[in-house]
Amino acid sequence: MNQDILINWSPQETRVAVVEQGAVQEVHIERTLERGLVGNIYLGKVSRVLPGMQSAFLDIGLDRAAFLHVADLMPNIQAKHAAPRTSGPAPAEPASPPAGSAEAPVVPPVTAPKVLAPNPVLPIEKQIFEGQALMVQVLKDPIGTKGARLTAQISIAGRLLVFLPQDNHIGVSQKIPPAQREALRQRLLALTATSDGSPSGGFILRTNAEDADDEELADDVAYLRKTWLRIKEAALRQPPASLLHEDLNLMQRVLRDLSGAGTQSIRIDSREQHGLLTGFANEFMPDTVAKLQHYSGERPIFDLFNVDEEIVRALGRRVELKSGGYLVIDQTEALTTVDVNTGGFVGARNFDDTVFRTNLEAAQAIARQLRLRNLGGIVIVDFIDMTREDHRESVLAEFRKQLARDRVKTMIGGFSQLGLVEMTRKRTRESLAHMLSEACEACGGKGHVKTARSVCYDILREILREARAFNPREFRVVASPKVVELFLDEERAHLAGLSEFIGKPISLQSENSMTQEQYDIVLM
């Protein structure tokens, strides 16, 4: 199906919408401050080697030096000088010193060495030395006083494959069914072998490569090898503590992962970013260059297809159907539930037809909402009960047809004995709701709060409890305006009765900043 991709860029955020037949199907968001460093490749300079910890600190150009443990070194790095070996287990990584705090002569960058057999007992001081330039990749972002965690075992992720340039192993994701693994491995071996039949770099087939054809695999192999060549060339030109490769940003991933044969256009509303993306496409994905367009219209690009309105609707529980029916979608930690309701749809000739037509429309809408909201994990769908078996089969067939359009892997069963449809959708990233919203401070994420009357009665019980333990001159209740108003009106008699029972005056103070469930009892 033909699709258009819209890219809205700003310095703080990049947003992408995938539109098919005028309807928004997917929304992707990346925020500049939340990108992190994981996956980035640097030419680091060893600033300190710690034999007692079998670790080292490297300057990679950040505020704090990064941490490298001996287990994350490539086994083929050879010693330039030796130091006495120390024994004992490696402790947890310590706080990092400021980057560059240990000065040492700069040595030329290392080129990609020939892979040798592992030597797990070789101590770190016999493998690297202070001042050495070493290509490393970030495993974990800096946290607090700790610098980034590094590895010298480089891996580069593509859409279908992960490239291991320092290895020759072909691996397959364990999530791919065993019956298909060997066939996939042999296909990839044939695609990656050099002219003399020997492998050139290692690869891991990712889960979403399960149904890929040879052309798609070959494109990913070419992209990954070209990326690695570019990284090696940068390592020869750049000084130590330089960034050699940054993990692809969202716009670049659009070209790699979202653009396909059915993509008609990729429109971006920034002239500068359009130029940068065109340069990236020319080098790595020339087939996408003709689809790139700079959008210069006066209206915001997302207004063309009401994308912002769709995002707002995707954060709500209720989804209206054109027929008058509606869905109720609830997302929990364990699973997502979808309830289908007829609502005001009474247009069919009889009730069975009404239910059938509502369920058919719901099957299409649910598949779209799963993509739009990026809901993953277990999904339970409660279609309206259907008495006819052919109606049930038709709804299930339509649901499977719509799910087949999803670029994320899904699995679906039939109707259970309770009339529910169970399915799973692979988790690929945070859901839209988790990215754009957080738990309500007023209700703590429950989705509801106590009534003002319930809070009033909680306060009365708390005052009685306090009166039995303390003997203040007066009790002062500080609460939300709605609770105070109820005490002054309908609950006045109960408040006065308690005051008379405990023999102490009770005063009220309204506090606008308090939520309905919040209150404080002050002993005067």
Give a description of the structure.
- This protein is an alpha+beta fold and 524 residues long.
- Among the domains are: 99 residues, Nucleotidyltransferase, domain 5 (2-Layer Sandwich), CATH 3.30.420; 122 residues, no CATH class; 72 residues, Ribonuclease E, catalytic domain (Hypothetical Protein Ychn, Chain: A), CATH 3.40.1260.20.
- The protein contains 11 helices and 24 strands.
- It has a 6-stranded mixed beta sheet with strand order 16-17-18-19-21-20, covered by helices on one side. A 5-stranded mixed beta sheet has the order 3-2-1-14-15, with helices on both faces. Strands 4-5-6-8-7 form a 5-stranded mixed beta barrel.
- Strand 1 and strand 2 form a beta hairpin.
- It is globular.
- About 6% of the residues have low confidence.
- Regions with little confidence, pLDDT below 50 for 5+ residues: 77-90, 102-119
Evaluate the radius of gyration. 31 Å
Biggest sheet strand line-up: 16-17-18-19-21-20
Strand content: 15-25%
Q: In terms of quaternary structure, what is this? A: single chain
Q: Structural class, from helix and strand content? A: alpha+beta
Amount of helix: 25-40%
Q: What characterizes the major β-sheet?
A: 6 strands, mixed
**Could you tell me the number of beta strands?**
24
Mean pLDDT: 86
- How does the overall form come out from the CA principal axes? globular
* Count, helices: 11
Between the first and last Cα atoms, what is the distance in angstroms? Answer: 71 Å
Please supply descriptive tags for the structure shown above.
single chain; 524 residues; alpha+beta; Nucleotidyltransferase, domain 5; Hypothetical Protein Ychn, Chain: A; six-stranded mixed β-sheet; five-stranded mixed β-sheet; 24 strands; 29% helix; globular
